[in-house]
Amino acid sequence: MKPIRMCLTCRNRTQQDNLNRFQCIDKQLVSFTNIGRSFYICKDCLNRGTTIKKILKLCGNKKAKDEFLRKIEEIVD
Fold it and tell me: Which residues pair with 6 in a beta bridge?
């Protein structure tokens, strides 16, 4: 049985394989580095505007919306 995790945005629980894992380091969004706290976002929520707002708030960098969108595209692709 695979681990079940929860999406930060929609709060749906699903298998870890169906989620993307990110973390904030120095107010920057990065792919999980295997050290420290992280969060999961499901593939459906990556394109929603509310997701970006939550990530900006979580990382404490409310003015880097375009940068975060670009980072998400880099990490997911």
Answer: 13
44 in Cβ contact with 21 (< 8 Å): no
Dist CA 73 CA 36 (whole Å): 22
The pLDDT value recorded for residue 12 is 94
Q: Domain of 8?
A: 4-76
Which residues of the chain carry a pLDDT beneath 70?
none
26-39: pLDDT as tens digits: 988 889 999 999 99
d(CA 22, CA 38): 6
Whose tokens are 């629980």? That residue is 13
